[in-house]
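Slide 14.
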Amino acid sequence: MDWFRYVFEDANRHLCEKIQNVPNIPEPHLDTTFISHLMGYASPMRLAGQWAIKIDTHFIGGLSQFRSWEIADIGVFVFFQQAGKLVRQKVALLQSKRLYPDVGDVVELETYDYWLGMARLGAKQGSQAPLLAQRTFSFSMESAYQALQRGKQVDRIKVFQKRSTIPVFYLLYNPANVPCTIKTPLDFHTRFNSTPVLGTRVVEASKVHQILDSVDYFPSVLDIDLAMPAGETVSRVGGWRLEYFMSDLLLGCFVGKRFTSADDEELFEIFNRRSGPITATIAVTVDVPEDVRLPD
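Slide 15: predicted structure.
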């Protein structure tokens, strides 16, 4: 669990660096950053006591990003095996949303961008803003997740939750800390060596939907913070830390759904259809020593 926590602490730092260095980055590019980081852990890692672990990833992308409303952006599987036999398997779904600055705009990828593809980089026409034109991006506890709103996607997730026992969580991409101000053009690229104060967070979908049902505005970091249980001392601000959720809660078997072959049809609908409601998958496989009994 310590090694697994380190992997996602490092992912958290990389995501914060991306927002710090490209404050108007589109949300899908943060998903790509997350998945790309985990690709470096596809080789099995041998740990003490005959434990081993590996992280596989698969990025689908494409159609489901703009022709339908996704149930989740990233699906996570955890497989435990002993002596070559699968003994436990779990699944959870992550719907990602990035924090928007109070000052400054975020680049939005529209349907046209996907249709045009790589040609959009060479499609500049007319006058262009000078690269040295200064822009300011400011974030605070009142900054909002502006793509998180009542309507089609939230309604679809609610319907899914009513008919499915697979849990959905929101993966919230934030700067390393708030308040913060970022000005471009940059004088240097930021690298984080320490744990972000805020950074990427995870929140149960039901808690976010309760906020949306009670307010007529986009939820902020402060709204998420106030919705978290008072006893969550590990991650009081803005949700569970990414690394805490992945290691202590998901790998530690406190969240996620255990599934069996009886759930195959439901899992097939989400993960196996090319036009299904998901864009990337993380699959964690853990080799458990034969003399170890997993906790219930």
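Speaker note: The chain has one domain: 2-101+133-287.
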